Task: structure prediction
Amino acid sequence: MTYLFVLCPLLFAAVAWGIKNRLRPLVLLAAALIHLLSTLWVTVTPQSPVDGGWLWLDPLGRIVLFCISVLFTICAFYAVGYLRYYNKRSNRFLCVCMLVCLSAMTLVSMAQHLGLFWVAMETTTLTMAPLIYFNRNARSIEATWKYIIICSVGIALAFLGLMFLAYSTHLAHKDATLILGELIEQAGDLNKAWLHAAFVFLIVGYGTKMGLAPLHAWKPDTYGEAPGIVGALLAGGLVNCSFLALIRVYQVCLASGPEVVFFNRVLIGMGLLSMAVAGIFIARQSDFKRLLAYSSVEHVGILSIGLGLGKGATFAALFHIINNGLTKGVLFLSAGNIHRAYSSKSVHEVRGALRRLPWSGGLFMAGFVAITGSPPFSPFISEFGIVAGAFRQGQNLVGGLFLFFLAVIFIGLARTVLPVVLGDPPEDAQPSRYQDRMLTVAPLCLVMLIILVLGIWQPPFLIRLLEDGAAMLEVGP
Amino acid sequence: MTPMEQLAHLPQTLFLADQLLVAVLLINFVMLASSRLMFCIRAAAVQGVILGLLPGIIHPFSFHIAVITVLIIVGKGIVIPNMIGKAVREVHIKREFEPFLGYIPALILGAALTAAAFVFARRLPLAPEHEALLFVPASFSTVVTGFLILTTRRKAISQVIGYLVLENGIFIFGLLLSEAMPVLVEAGVLLDLLVGVFVMAIVINHISREFSSTDTSRLRSLKEE
Result:
C-alpha cells in the first residue's frame, strides 16, 4: 500500500508521456482523484512504520500529505480547463512533471530516512523547473535559471548538514544513521558541536527552499513568471514539503535538549524578518503575482514563528500548513485567470476584474480576505492561535511585532488588491476573449468553501490529526 | 603522536587515499585558475573519477561499494561532462569572460581558504580514526572552491561547474559515513545530480537562444521597480 502510494503517480506519468495532448489532462485528473481517495483513507486510519522504520506516514506527514493532495486535485481540475485554452501547445512536460512531483511530494511526507527525504526534496525541486518555463519567454527562462541554481545550491547545503548530523552519530557509536526514529532516540548522546553545525546548514538549506528571508531571493521572480497552476503547487505544495523538512530537523533538535533554544530563536528571528521583508515589498508592489510571492514569504515566516514558539503554538502552526496551502492555491489560480484575461499582471493595467471576470475576481478578493487572516476564514484561526501562543509564553515582543506586521501587510495587500478587483476597468481595454469557465472556477469555489468551513467548524478527524502532530512536537522538558 | 608519526602509522590504503585527496585539492586550484570552459569541465570530471575510486580504496570490497564505484565513475566521469560539454559546444563559447573576481585573486583566495580549512579541521572533534586523514579538510576546501566558482564567474556554465565542485566536496565528507547512506539513497542522490545538471544544461541552451549570451549578469530584467 505504502509503495503503491508513491508508485501510482509515476505509473500515470508514464502513461501521460505516451498519449495524445488532448487526453493528457484527463490522466492527470484520474491520478489526482485516486491519490486524494487514498490520502483520505490514510488520514483516518493510523499507519504503522514499514521497512525497518524507513517509511512511515506519521501524523505530521499526514497533515502535509492531506494539504498537498487536496491542492493537487484542485490543480488537476483546473489543468483540464487551462490546457484546453492552450490546446495548441504541447502539455507533455507539464503533465508528466506534475505527476512525478506528486510522487516525490508523497515520498517526502512519508520518508523517515533523512537521506531518502533529501532525495525526494531535490526531485520536487527539479520537476518544477520545466514547469516554470512553460510560457517560453526571456523572463521565464531567467526565473527558471535563478530558481534552479539557488534552490539546488541551497539543497546541497542541506545535504552537507545531513552529513554533519550523520557524523555526530558516528562519533557517538561508530554506526552512522540518518533514520529519524534512531536519531531522536540517541539525540542526547550526540556530539554537540557537529549537531550545531548540522542544524545551521539544514536551516540555511531548507530555508532557501522554503523561501524564508533573507534566503528568499528566487521567490518573487519564480512565482511571478510561473503559470498560476505552477505557482499554486510551489506555494502550497513545495513550501509545505520544505516546512516538513524543518519539522523533521526540529524533532531531532527537540530530543537533543539545549540545542532547541538556539533553533527556536533562529526560527522566530527568520520568521519575523520574513514578515518584515514581505511587509516592505508588498507595500510598493505593482505586479500582482509578485505580490502573492511576497505573501508566501510572509506565510513561511508565520509558519516558522509558529514552530519556533513551540508549546502552545504548534497546533496552530500545523493547522496553518493546511490553511496557507489551500488559500495560496485559490489566490494563484484565480490570479492566473485574471492574468490571462488582461494579458498583463501590472496593477496599472489590471483594474475592475470583478466586472470582467466576476468569478475569478470574486475568488481573488475572497482569497485576499482569507490570507490576511480575517475571520471567518480558517487562516484567522491558525494565525490567532500563533499570536495567542506567543503572548501565553510571555513573548510579548514577538506577539506584538507579529500583529504589527500582519496589519502592515493587510494594508499593503489591500492597496493593491482592491483596485485590481473593484476599480473601474480601463477605458481603452480590448475586450478579452478569455472568459471564466466552469473548470477554472468551480474547483476554486470548492476550496474557498473548505477554507470557510474550516474557519467555523473543524471536523473531529482533523483536530485529532493536528493534536497527534502537535503532541509529537511538544515532548521533552 | 605528531602528525608525521601518525602518517607513518597509516595503513597503505589510507595513505593512497590521502594522496588522491591531494590530487583533488590540486584540481581545485587548477579550476580556479583556468578560464577555458572545456578544460574546467574535464578537470571536474577527473575529480569525479578520483572520488569514484576512493570508496573502493578505503572500504573493504562489497557489492554496495562496487555498485557505487561504477555509478559514480560513469555519472561524474562520463555522463555529466558530456552533457555540459554538449551545452558548451551548442552555445559556441570557449572561455569565461571577465569574472567578477580575477583568476589570480581567486587562486590566492582559494589557497587561503584551503589553509583555513586545514586549520579549522584540526580543531574539530573528529573520530580518532579520521584525525590523521585529509578527508575533512579536503571536503571543506572543495566545498569552498565550489562556492568561489559559483559566485565569482559570470557564465552560466561556470556556475554549473561550481555546483558540481560543491557536490564533490560534500561527497568527500560522505565517504567517512558510507553506512548512513544505503546504496539506494546514494543512487538517488547521484540520479538527482544527473537530472539537475541535465535540466541546467537545457536551461543554458535556452538562455543563450533568448539572450544571445550565457552571461548570467544579463539576467536582470526581473527585479523590484
